[in-house]
Amino acid sequence: MNRSSNSSFRSFLITIGPGLLVAATGVGAGDLATAAFTGNKLGVTILWVVLLGASLKFVLNEGLARWQLATGQTLLEGAVIRLGPVISFIFLPYLLLWSFFVGSALMSACGVAMHAIVPIFDQASQGKIFFGIIHSLIGVMLVLVGGFVLFEKVMNACIIFMFFCVLLTAVIICENWGDVVTGLLLPRIPQIGSGGLGWTIALMGGVGGTLTVLCYGYWMREKERTEVSELGTCRIDLGFAYVATAIFGISMVIIGSTIQVEGTGAGLIVDLADKLEGSLGSVGRWTFLIGAWGAIFSSLLGVWQSVPYIFADFWDLIQARDRDSTYATEVDTKSLPYRGYLFAIAIVPMVGLFFSFKQVQKVYAIFGAMFMPFLAVVLLILNGRSVWVGPHRNRVITVIALVVILAVFVFFGYLQLRQKLGI
Fold first, then answer.
1. 228: CB partners within 8 A, 6+ apart
2. Is the pTM of this model over 0.90?
3. Residues 6+ apart with CB under 8 A from 336
């Protein structure tokens, strides 16, 4: 009986494996901080937004999986081949900027969180630099030495641990479960005229990652999911991923709603852990802090392993002069493009540990804010033609959802752009 239960559990983990990777990679320090800060500003009234954001990201990832299983091509391959060279000119600058700033942010967040756990330096800035570099190099070693198998095991351990720690903290600290249920079921936006709308959309956009949505297609290939008949498995997989992501986001909003927090990014997470000590004691502080560290490091490891897939795939596409509509190739993780980009994303952004690039970040914000609507447009076009995907084209409800995503994230990008440029 016990052996049968263990076998069933392993089968379940295999089924939801890529989904766990999506959840672990999509939750970083910025997402944790945004959820906590939004909860602090608006309370649990805003919890419905977390559910909506996770649902919208599910629609995007399901569309990506449907395209790949129907055509054998990743979404990036389909976009470059079907929509022309303009995609290449738009995508490459975005990928490079995203890699630099997100890589730098993840190293910094890991450094700050680890310094709070192991404060061996007199100044936090020194700890951030040292531990940030160490985490980046450990990430590279895990990707290179263990390959996908070790990567998946480490990521699964991280997300299970961080999920348990953060959820446990939220359950213990929650003051009114009736308000939580109301916040989940009744859509309202408090303080809509004084920043409430901006925080609401920021929370929605922060659920489940941005560019890392594309990585799911490469993890599908690692799991050898190539048949359209496996679409149901992908939907279960992704459903679990975004349920877990939503629960994680809900937990952070609940935690943030109970404590006054300040700061941004990983600094806010550390401040939140310190404040939790007052109500939960040192055990509560360490439980939350280590869980948050697990979330941040798993995000770094996920980006280090998966984003080089995207670059290597893109590199093969622009090199294949004789490619046609049937182009589809596996990414070789031992190839120069993959390993070169892995080292680049792990080393070049280290510069950001020493400096602040506020003006360049404004440019990045323009590119970053437009990724989700760009992805929605691509899915509307590629999955909208039966000649390309056959009977698996977008249904009416999917089209409506993609149009909503397009509208919501264009508006979010507009607000973010105004904030960054001080308009």
1. 69, 70, 392
2. no
3. none
Concatenating the DSSP letter of every residue in 33-58 gives HHHHHHHHHHGGGGHHHHHHHHHHHH
- Going from N- to C-terminal start, the domains of the chain cover 16-421
User: What sign has the CA pseudo-torsion 337, 338, 339, 340?
Assistant: positive
CB-neighbour burial class of residue 357 (10 A; exposed 0-12, middle 13-18, buried 19+)? middle
- Cα–Cα distance list, 45 to 4, 22, 253, 255 (Å): 43, 27, 10, 13
Distance in angstroms (rounded) separating the CA atoms of residues 131 and 144: 20
Neighbouring CB atoms inside 10 A of 363's CB total: 14
Q: E strands of 186-255, at which residues? A: none
- Residue 191 φ then ψ, to 5°: 50, 40
What's the pLDDT tens digit per position in 309-358? 999 999 888 876 555 545 556 778 889 999 999 999 999 999 888 765 44
Kindly state which CATH superfamily the domain 16-421 is placed in: Amino acid/polyamine transporter I (1.20.1740.10)
Are the C-beta atoms of residues 121 and 127 closer than 8 Å to each other?
A: yes
Which stretches of 52-176 are assigned E, i.e. beta strand? none
Q: How far from the centroid of its chain's Cα atoms is residue 10's Cα?
A: 25
